[in-house]
């Protein structure tokens, strides 16, 4: 089950900062993770896998948003979570 929105964003912030090897404060909710921070698809999949394990959400068939931000990934997880619960 996913946590409240602020907690979810903080968790994603830590995960993306770790895989990108950047300070957490650089990874803000609306920064474009690919264009501005250099996130690649493997790093994104690693975070999705960790998030899926941590919050028991099936992210395997999830299609990633066109622009990757913490907010768009949180929305993706919420959609995946509602699909998982159905």
UniProtKB/TrEMBL annotation:
Pfam family, one: PP-binding
Carrier domain ranges (all copies): 12-43
Superkingdom of the organism of origin: Bacteria
InterPro entries on file: ACP-like_sf (IPR036736), PP-bd_ACP (IPR009081)
Protein name per UniProt: Phosphopantetheine binding protein
Organism: Micromonospora olivasterospora
